[in-house]
Design brief:
Blueprint (H helix, E strand, L loop, with lengths): L2 H17 L2 H8 L3 H15 L4 E4 L2 E4 L1 H29 L4 E7 H17 L5 E7 L1 H9 L5 E6 L8 E15 L12 H5 L2 E4 L5 H13 L5 E5 L3 H11 L2 E5 H10 L3 E2 L7 E10 L6 H15 L2
Parallel strand pairs: 3-4, 3-5, 7-8, 7-9
Antiparallel strand pairs: 1-2, 5-11, 6-9, 6-10, 6-11
Length: about 300
C-alpha cells in the first residue's frame, strides 16, 4: 500500500475512533460518508481484521481495533515528528521546538523562561501553544508538540507517555481590596462563604482545587461567576472586591501592585502540581533537550 495513502487511512481511522461515528468523521473531514467507509474497509483489508463493531449509534473498537488504534497513534506521531525534523534540516535553522502547555502555565510561567532561552540561541525556532491539559496531552501524543508542561492531576497516562512532576506551586487565596480587613484572619468556613470568581467546573485546575477543599470542609465555595482564563478572573476579583483561589505565580504581580490582597486562613494549604509530559519513544534534538532542561531547572528552582 502506498505510504502516503496509508497515513491518510490511519488519520481517517483515528478520527472515526475519536468521533465514534463514520457520519461525524465525514462531517469533520467535509467529505461524503462512503469515502470514510471506504478508507476503513481498505485498512481492515490490509490488516486482515475487523476493527469496529456497532453498538446503537456508536462504533466501538474490537480487540484488534484497540491494538490498531495504538499503532496508528504511534505511526502518526512519528510521521509528524519526522516531517518537522526534515523541515528543520532543510531550512537551515538552528533547531526548533514545539511546546504545549495548560493556559496559566503558558501565560505566566513559560514565556519568560523561553524568552531567556531563545536569547541564548538566536537561530532557534520556538513555538508555545496554550490550551487545556487534555488538548496539550493530545498534541504530544500525536506528535504536534515535542513535549508539554501542564497543571496535572496524576491521571493514568497511556503506556506511550511519560510524566515528571517538576513543581508543586502554592495556591493563594486573595481578593480585591475592601472585601476583608487586611489584618483579619478568617476560618476556612468563613473564607468559603466569600463571593468567589472561579474557573469552569470541567477545567482540571478547578477540579483539583475542589478535591482539596472537599477534603478540608463540607462547605462548598460560593462561586458567583466563572471565567476560562486567569486574567478576567483576576480583573473581576480586583474590580468587584471578590475572592479568588489562584496559583502564586498567577497573582504575585497583582499582590505586589496592590490590585489584590492576600487573605489569611490559618492552616489552609492548597497546591497545584505542574508536570512535564513527553512520548516514551520521543527522540529529542539537542535544542529540544536543552529546552526541557531549561524549563525543568527554572521551575524546580522557583
Amino acid at each position: 500500500m502506498e505510504a502516503q495513502l496509508s497515513l491518510k487511512r490511519l488519520e481517517v481511522f483515528r478520527l472515526v475512533v475519536e468521533e465514534g461515528s463514520v457520519t461525524r468523521a465525514a462531517e469533520v473531514l467535509m467529505v461524503a460518508q462512503p469515502a470514510v467507509s471506504g478508507q476503513l474497509r481498505a485498512l481492515e483489508s490490509w490488516l486482515g481484521a475487523k476493527l469496529f463493531v456497532r453498538r446503537g449509534n456508536r462504533m466501538l473498537l474490537t480487540e484488534a481495533g484497540e491494538r490498531a488504534n495504538q499503532w496508528a497513534k504511534e505511526m502518526l506521531a512519528s510521521a509528524a515528528q519526522i516531517r518537522r525534523d526534515v523541515d528543520e534540516l532543510g531550512s537551515g535553522r538552528g533547531g526548533a521546538a514545539s511546546i504545549a502547555s495548560s493556559m496559566a502555565v503558558g501565560s505566566y510561567l513559560l514565556p519568560p523562561i523561553l524568552s531567556r532561552f531563545q536569547r541564548g540561541r538566536p537561530g532557534s525556532d520556538l513555538t508555545l501553544s496554550s490550551s487545556q491539559p487534555n488538548e496539550a496531552l493530545r498534541a504530544v501524543e500525536t506528535g504536534e508538540a515535542d513535549f508539554a508542561v501542564v497543571t496535572w492531576d496524576q491521571r493514568h497516562l497511556p503506556d506511550t507517555m511519560s510524566s515528571d512532576v517538576i513543581r508543586t506551586e502554592p495556591i493563594t487565596l486573595c481578593a480585591g481590596p475592601g472585601l476583608v480587613a487586611p489584618s483579619r484572619a478568617l476560618s476556612l468556613d468563613e473564607a468559603l462563604e466569600l463571593p468567589f470568581v472561579g474557573a469552569p467546573r470541567e477545567v482540571i485546575y478547578q477540579r483539583n482545587l475542589m478535591e482539596q477543599l472537599t477534603r478540608l470542609s463540607d462547605i462548598e465555595p460560593n462561586f458567583i461567576i466563572r471565567f476560562g482564563h486567569a486574567e478576567p478572573m483576576k480583573q473581576a476579583a480586583a474590580e468587584n472586591a471578590w475572592a479568588i483561589f489562584a496559583p502564586r505565580y498567577v497573582v504575585e504581580s497583582d499582590l505586589a501592585a496592590g490590585r489584590l490582597q492576600e487573605l489569611a486562613v490559618p492552616g489552609l494549604e492548597l497546591t497545584e502540581r505542574i508536570a512535564l509530559l513527553w512520548r516514551r519513544d520521543k527522540f529529542f534534538s539537542p535544542l529540544q533537550q536543552a529546552a526541557v532542561d531549561e524549563i525543568r531547572d527554572a521551575l524546580r528552582s522557583r
